[in-house]
Structures are given as C-alpha cells and as structure tokens.
Amino acid sequence: MTTITTSLPDELVQRLAKYAKTLGLPKNKLIEKALSLYLDHLKRVAYVKSYQAAGKDQDMLSLAEEGMGEYLKQLEDETR
C-alpha cells in the first residue's frame, strides 16, 4: 500500500471526521471508499459520453442497424 500526503480544506476535514466517527471507520478508509466510488462514477460518465458520441456517428448507427437485422433473422430462424 502506498502512503500519500495531501492538503484538504478544514471544513472538509471536519466533515470527514464527523462521518468517520458516525460510521465507526478510520478517516483513511472513508477516503479510500469515497475516492473509489468517485473514480467509478467518472468511468461511468466516460462510458455514457462515448455511447452518446457513438449515437451521433452515422457509421456506428449503420453497424448497429445491420447487427439488429442479423439478430432479427436469427430469431426468425429459431422460431421456425
């Protein structure tokens, strides 16, 4: 495990201490969990943006439509 040193605003440290006490967690564990959740959130936001961009790309839309056509054909073949 790596140790880092950082500066935080006093008000944020007070809030951190309050929640850590309420949850019965060490402050470093609460920071670890909060940072992990935030980084996961950023990753999801990036995925959403990439899908939104793909939705505006005509080549991607054409590929998706072709794929759906093939999928529909497979479903029809299976129901026969």
From TrEMBL:
InterPro entries: Arc_rbn_hlx_hlx, Predicted_DNA_bind_prot_RHH, Ribbon_hlx_hlx. It comes from the Bacteria. Residues 4-40 form the Predicted DNA-binding protein ribbon-helix-helix domain. Coiled coil: none annotated. It holds the Pfam family RHH_3. One of its GO terms (biological process) is regulation of DNA-templated transcription. This is Predicted DNA-binding protein ribbon-helix-helix domain-containing protein. It comes from Mongoliitalea lutea.
